[in-house]
Structure formats: structure tokens, C-alpha cells
Design goal:
Elements (H helix, E strand, L loop, with lengths): L1 H17 L11 H33 L7 H10 L6 H16 L6 H16 L6
Length: 129
């Protein structure tokens, strides 16, 4: 939990810093682009920690025999009321995966914008118990 809370604190910082920046890649200077890259990296880190460590651990505590892929983890977490929407968290994961490989290309603005919209959900994970 400490690792997740620290990662969320870093994401919150980047989220606040990026709030005033344009999302149009061709209008970004190097400093602004660096800020967005930090945000994207921190978004990915929080999503990894929450999905791969926190949720999986909570599910395994409740069901030690659980074996499943990400979608199974998300659906089970939703049933356990650990998350409110499996589909929303699946989108978080897809954005994280896309950003690792392609976000700097033609879909930069859309990807960054959607990540920014979903960031508050990741920030709320600091309240997970």
C-alpha cells in the first residue's frame, strides 16, 4: 500500500502540473512534452501497481485458488466491490499499454486527453484499504 500511495502522490503532482498544458503535440515545447511524458509514466505506474499487485492480492486473499487473466481480475474485483467498473479499469489498462508503444504518434492528443480524464480514478486508489 505504501508503494501505491507514493506512486499516486507522484501522479497527483504530474496531474496538477499538466492541468494547464495544451494536449496538442505540435504546440508543445520540450518542457511541456517532458511534463506529459512524466504524467503518462506515472499513470502507467499507478495502474500497474493497483491492477497487478493490489487487486490481485485482495482477490487471492479472498480466494487463494484464483487463477485468471486481467479481465477475470477486473470482473472479480467489481463483484467484490473493490472497483466500481471493470470496463473502466480495462480501458485504463489499454491506455497504459497503448502509451508504452504508440502514444507519441498521431493519437497523442486523444490518448493524453483520455488518460487525463481517467486519472482521478487512479488517484482515488490512495484511499484503498
Amino acid at each position: 500500500m505504501q508503494e501505491l500511495r507514493q506512486a499516486v502522490a507522484h501522479l497527483e503532482y504530474s496531474y496538477d502540473k499538466a492541468r494547464i498544458l495544451t494536449r496538442e503535440k505540435d504546440r508543445l515545447d520540450e518542457e511541456s512534452l517532458e511534463t506529459w511524458e512524466g504524467f503518462v509514466s506515472r499513470f502507467g505506474r499507478v495502474s500497474d501497481l493497483f491492477l497487478k499487485k493490489y487487486l490481485r492480492t485482495k482477490i487471492l486473499i479472498a480466494d487463494p485458488g484464483f487463477r485468471g487473466e486481467l479481465i477475470d481480475v477486473l470482473n472479480t474485483a467489481e463483484k467484490m466491490n473493490l472497483i466500481s467498473s471493470a470496463s473502466q479499469w480495462y480501458e485504463v489498462r489499454q491506455l497504459r499499454n497503448f502509451s508504452v508503444h504508440e502514444y507519441a504518434g498521431a493519437k497523442f492528443t486523444g490518448t493524453i486527453s483520455r488518460m487525463f480524464e481517467l486519472a482521478p480514478i487512479l488517484i482515488q486508489t490512495k484511499n484503498a484499504t
